[in-house]
Specification:
about 725 residues, alpha+beta, Rossmann fold, 8-stranded mixed sheet, 5-stranded antiparallel sheet, 14 helices
Length: about 725
């Protein structure tokens, strides 16, 4: 079971509260500023209407102007062709997942299947150079037949056979999706089957005739962040208004979603409502015939797996009464697997039902991912931002672990795990090493490399190094440099620095054929900074950059930038930066705080207007990360780094390239639009591209991805190589 809250988001109330003195003498609550007052004089508020005529006309005009510049560059056609050739390559290695019917399933896109094929093969066939694939669902054909702009967002299939699936389809790449029941044996949508109309929703199978669904059941019944907070059961044949409510959160929550715990044979052992109170704090409720019972878990915890009657969770805060610490992987033993056992657990600790430590990372380690096979617990570990995989077994002496002998100094990704046995797929990759696919037997430790991706660029000219920069408060910030072996250390190397720094997301080494072909092979240097706010060293690394500490994230980034310059790997003239989403906010802060360090800034699907962020897109959900602009003291912190309000005339800003997507219903395109408009108003050169489709990824298919990447590398070439 993957971490359950990767891209969902926290909230802010729309109400104005009056100060009150707490009975215990605590500091009175601050009076909230009405959201309508924040940024009310902004001349570009009209850009917040996503598909408003005026906003789209502006975007199309800017697209025409900027594409004329970038696509008019003599290098563009060649770079786009190379990117598209890599993305559409027939010899790409298809990643696969175990299915309950014994097959391996894959989703595939190429030049002939732009929207993609959902298909299957056997393990024996997959091991061959040319597997025999059988199409399950053709998304191109479906879109043509229905005259729709479908983007495939995955399939949730009912264990143990997994032949009945809920297909998730997005119009143009939005987070809002339509869900339809599909039969993989007949390869057709089920006549009279489950259909959930478009919305931001989550769901889980309870049994073949029952779903657990969180969605907008009545108009406006969503959290302030735009997600579901009412969970209902929907029986086969029922209309949505006949669904039965089983749990209700609050409008100020981030979201509510279902977790169905099953044993290895697919039998339901418990149903939990996950209430995301904020982006990082949650409550978990056992759903029983007698109502919902709150489980005794701390707020900052994420359920990771359920194996052999043990609920596995990762702590993101200390739990001193049980001797557990931030970053620990722990368990609740809830055998026997009965509703009464769960009810006992919900009512308080009992014999055998106490939390217990499984694994405690060191200061330089963090648990990156967790999954389970039929009998084993498998952990993806980061050790100084390099990967390892551990298999945990439970016996008479408790938990023991075995490290799998996968390639060192790589990123190791946990792939699909079988619940029929103990097989699991892994991916192994590095900046200069194409991805390899491994099949492991978690019980025996036996490993088999089943696939290896072809090289997409000449990596022989570059080398990977790891350095540390010292941030403003003395903390050491690691970063990777992928540079030509021939670097002269005279500041002349064209260098692209990438970072994210938020939401506990780690940046680990990974192979990008397009980046390698379009940047490294042409003599570029690529750098990734592991700044605070991310998850490279566990929850504490993330906590260090939250809210009032946000400036530390940006100071880390500047420290890496200055270290690159001090080492004479590059210079401000040759240093460019790139980041998306939260990383796009980082780009905006770098532009406004330290423009003298950079000559190119690629701002991808960014947050930018941080005074109004909580009321546009899904912004209310991120208050746990950045703070609440409706609270004056928190707004004061945000205002110091807010890129939008800190854009000033008379600064030496480099020409920036800003990208977004009209269909991005997570980070609203108004952030990018307003950033570009304000810069242009102040007289600065700006290149702007708004993809009309694509969602938060800013690309709905491989052709759009190739176009976007070619635009980026043309821009970077113009700024850093010319």
């Amino acid at each position: 079971m993957k971490r359950l809250l990767l891209a969902l988001l926290a909230t802010t109330s729309l109400m104005t509260l009056t100060p009150a003195i707490a009975a215990d003498g605590a500091k009175p609550a601050e009076a909230r500023t009405p959201l309508s007052e924040l940024g009310k004089d902004d001349p570009y508020l009209w850009m917040e209407e996503i598909e408003g005529t005026r906003a789209l006309d502006w975007a199309k005009a800017e697209n025409k102007r900027s594409l004329g510049v970038l696509q008019g560059d003599a290098r563009y056609a060649d770079l786009e062709a190379k990117a598209l050739a890599i993305l559409n390559a027939k010899d790409r290695v298809p990643g696969v997942s175990f299915a309950g019917d014994g097959s391996l399933r894959n989703f595939w896109q190429d030049a002939d299947h732009v929207r993609g094929l959902w298909r299957k093969t056997t393990l024996d066939s997959y091991r061959t150079a040319n597997p025999a694939w059988e199409t399950i669902l053709d998304i191109d054909a479906l879109s043509k037949a229905e005259n729709a702009n479908w983007v495939f967002k995955g399939a949730g299939c009912l264990p143990p056979d997994e032949t009945r699936c809920l297909i998730t389809l997005s119009n143009g790449g939005k987070d809002a999706v339509t869900v339809r029941e599909f039969d993989t044996t007949t390869k057709s949508f089920v006549d009279g089957g489950f259909v959930l109309p478009e919305g931001k929703q989550n769901y889980a199978w309870l049994d073949k005739d029952t779903l657990l669904v969180g969605r907008e059941w009545t108009p406006g019944e969503l959290t302030d962040s735009g997600y579901a907070y009412v969970l209902k059961t929907l029986k086969r044949g029922q209309t949505l208004d006949q669904a039965v409510e089983v749990y209700r959160g609050q409008k100020t929550d981030v979201s509510v979603s279902p977790i169905v715990l099953r044993n290895a044979d697919g039998k339901v052992m418990g149903v939990i409502a996950h209430r995301g109170v904020t982006f990082f704090e949650s409550e978990h409720y056992l759903i029983t015939d007698k109502g919902a019972a709150k489980l005794p878990l701390p707020p900052k915890v994420s359920i990771q797996a359920f194996v052999e009657g043990r609920l596995i969770f990762l702590l993101e805060q200390d739990w001193p009464e049980h001797g557990l610490k931030t970053g620990d992987l722990a368990q609740y033993n809830i055998d026997p697997l009965t509703v009464d056992a769960y009810a006992d657990l919900a009512g308080g600790p009992r014999a055998g039902a106490h939390p217990a430590l499984i694994f405690r990372p060191t200061a330089k380690q963090s648990v990156e991912s967790v999954t389970n096979t039929r009998n084993k617990l498998v952990v993806g570990l980061l050790d100084n931002v390099k990967g390892a995989a551990l298999v945990f077994s439970h016996g008479a002496k408790g938990w023991t672990s075995q490290k799998l002998d996968l390639p060192a100094n790589s990123s190791i990704g946990l792939g699909s795990a079988s619940e029929k046995d103990d097989r699991i797929f892994f991916t192994v990759t590095g900046y200069l090493t194409p991805t390899t696919y491994w099949l492991a037997d978690a019980a025996s430790g036996k490993l088999e490399q089943v696939k290896a991706s072809p090289a997409r660029f000449d990596a022989s000219t570059h080398v990977v190094e790891q350095f540390e920069a010292t941030s403003s408060d003395g903390v050491k910030i690691p970063y990777f440099v992928v540079r030509p072996k021939s670097v002269k250390y005279d500041g002349s190397a064209p260098t692209l620095l990438y970072a994210y720094g938020g939401f506990q997301v780690p940046l680990t080494p990974g192979y990008s054929g397009v980046m390698g072909k379009l940047w490294l092979e042409r003599g570029g240097t690529y750098v990734v900074a592991n700044i605070r706010g991310g998850g490279e060293f566990g929850p504490a690394w993330h906590e260090a950059g939250l809210k009032a500490n946000r400036q530390k994230v940006y100071d880390d980034f500047f420290a890496v930038s200055q270290d690159l310059i001090a080492r004479k790997i590059t210079s401000p003239r040759r240093l460019g930066i790139m980041g998306g989403s939260n990383g796009g906010l980082l780009m905006g802060v770098a532009l406004t705080q330290r423009p003298e360090l950079y000559n190119a800034v690629v701002v991808q699907v960014p947050l930018f207007d941080m005074i109004r962020y909580s009321q546009i897109g899904a912004g209310a959900s991120w208050v746990g990360e950045y703070g609440d602009p409706a609270i004056p003291s928190e707004r004061a912190v945000i205002a110091k780094y807010d890129p939008y309000s800190n854009l000033k005339a008379g600064k030496k800003y480099p020409e920036v390239f800003i990208e977004t997507s009209t269909k991005d219903d997570r980070v609203h395109p108004a952030h990018a639009r307003k950033a570009a408009a304000r810069l242009m108003e102040l007289g600065y050169p700006v290149l702007y591209y708004e993809n009309i489709d694509g969602g938060h990824a800013a690309s709905a298919n491989l052709a759009e991805t190739a176009r976007r990447q070619a635009l980026e590398y043309v821009y970077l070439s113009r700024r850093l190589m010319d």
